[in-house]
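Example 9 (inverse folding). The structure is encoded as follows.
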């Protein structure tokens, strides 16, 4: 079973199912592997890392026809990356668009939001998402607070504004998983989060953002609740993944971070690290066929 992506599936106003999108055997349809709290894991990871496939014009994840080996830090082989309809959008800064014409038209007709997310260590990050997918995007990042800065038609315009905001002092456009891991025990009161947002809004007053940003507490969406001690990292970045094991009971998930335990010992796994690798499962699992990824857009 090959890991294709870390996935949060919304199933209600605030509830999400956390898990992995995977490729099973020779199946051409991806599947969802739920990772709920208290689930027992006995995994062995095997390499080499292989291409996870591409998103087609219909919005579905399509399996790599060559099952290509990935030698570097990427997740897709050259042909799959070139044919992925969403790949140019990930790197977009609003200036030069490399997307297919059909994707450009779809982008121009879609409502986007420029948002700010705040993490418990005080980090403030800005980003862009289609309006209907904003909540899921915040959950995927493991944000602690989030709010919409501006709603706008057209992704390229939104990206240009995001780029300008990202240049402000005290703002970032990327937060590494190591930083999120270190902040698992940090607590940021909502009043402190509002103060950080207010300070940011003052610096960004020239960018015509919303005058009254509603800040959402993201904690109810995650399956990972309060921890009493800092979990140990599952692996160092320099360690090979091939042959590594993940064993124990799931405590919960926050973004791409999964905390497990054996007795009183806790580990934290950044599941993004195992994308492209194969999981050898010792126990029965529940899998749900995934029909499409249209909500990506």
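The amino acid assigned to each position is listed next.
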């Amino acid at each position: 079973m090959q890991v294709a992506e870390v996935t949060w599936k919304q199933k209600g106003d605030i509830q999400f199912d956390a898990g992995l999108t995977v490729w099973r055997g020779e199946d051409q349809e991806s599947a969802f592997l739920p990772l709920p709290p208290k689930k027992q894991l006995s995994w062995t990871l095997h390499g080499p890392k292989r291409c996870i496939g591409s998103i087609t014009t219909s919005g579905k994840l399509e399996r790599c026809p060559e099952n290509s080996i990935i030698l570097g830090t990427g997740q897709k082989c050259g042909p799959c990356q070139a044919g992925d309809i969403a790949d140019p959008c990930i790197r977009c800064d609003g200036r030069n668009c490399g997307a297919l014409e059909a994707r450009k038209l779809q982008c121009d007709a879609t409502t986007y939001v420029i948002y700010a997310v705040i993490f418990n260590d005080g980090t403030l990050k800005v980003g862009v998402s289609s309006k209907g997918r904003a909540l899921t995007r915040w959950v995927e990042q493991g944000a602690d607070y989030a709010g919409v800065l501006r709603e706008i038609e057209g992704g390229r315009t939104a990206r240009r504004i995001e780029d300008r905001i990202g240049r402000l002092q005290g703002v970032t456009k990327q937060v590494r998983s190591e930083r999120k891991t270190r902040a698992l025990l940090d607590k940021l009161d909502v009043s402190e989060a509002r103060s950080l947002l207010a300070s940011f809004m003052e610096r960004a007053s020239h960018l015509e953002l919303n005058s009254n940003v509603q800040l959402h507490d993201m904690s109810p969406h995650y399956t990972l609740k309060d921890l009493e001690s800092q979990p140990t990292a599952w692996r160092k970045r320099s360690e090979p993944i091939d042959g590594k094991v993940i064993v124990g009971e799931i405590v919960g998930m926050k973004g791409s971070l999964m905390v497990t335990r054996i007795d009183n010992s806790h580990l934290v796994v950044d599941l993004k690290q195992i994308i492209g690798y194969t999981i050898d499962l010792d126990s029965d699992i529940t899998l749900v066929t995934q029909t499409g990824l249209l909500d990506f857009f």
